[in-house]
């Protein structure tokens, strides 16, 4: 595809925090100096800098839209947009604010990309890999990046990420995904529900699993068959894509990105230290 015809996408960078400060901020920032974990110091920069610097180098990105921080909180040496919304606003509300902002400045993209701000090991090459996979899925309205569990565990043993255990793939959700504005508008209830239940998943539990999210999806009768099949260990990734697409009226696909840094963010204090070691090693390898 010629560069001039290459689609580019807006990226929503989620950089707020919950109303109640979670364990990471309580441990790393006990004096409450930082408004968001995106602002935490990390190897001589702010945590968010590592991710934004990798993103802004991608030729597939139209613009970076910060959701949860303002120009009074942070600035950069490259262009960014600041979406007006409270730092502690609900996730679904932040997505809606992002779409409203795009519309207000005259942009109506077919898809927007959602990124965290706490995955400092993410690299531009793998960001581009996700976008190339996305462009191979025309018509999709929800595209999730996923990383093979064994890739994560080889670098971060005992990472205790939530794993999607299909019969053909064992996958961890990655750091980028795409949603259509229509899916964001019509899917407010399910987006809010999944966001809330993801926070209920205890990564310190002995048997970490995605049951809070599964119980939410079970409220949709069309999901019952795939949930039973999944719990029996018989569901494939394509089974899940097909049924999710039908249930929520949004073509759903997954893009596999086999890179540990693409699937490891900072939720717990130990993640912070492990990712410091990982990024240092990356810098040594490239320096």
Class derived from helix and strand content: alpha/beta
Order of helices and strands: EHEEHEEHEHEHEEHHHHHEH
Low-confidence stretches are: none
* Number of separate strands: 10
What Rg do the Cα atoms give?
Answer: 18 Å
Q: Globular, elongated, flat, extended or rod-shaped: what is the shape?
A: globular
The CA-CA distance between the termini, in Å, is 32 Å
Query: Helical region count?
Result: 11
Per DSSP, what share of the residues sits in E-state strands of 2 or more residues? Answer: 15-25%
What does the main sheet amount to? 8 strands, mixed
The helical percent reads 25-40%
Quick check: average pLDDT? 91
Question: What's the multimeric state?
Answer: single chain
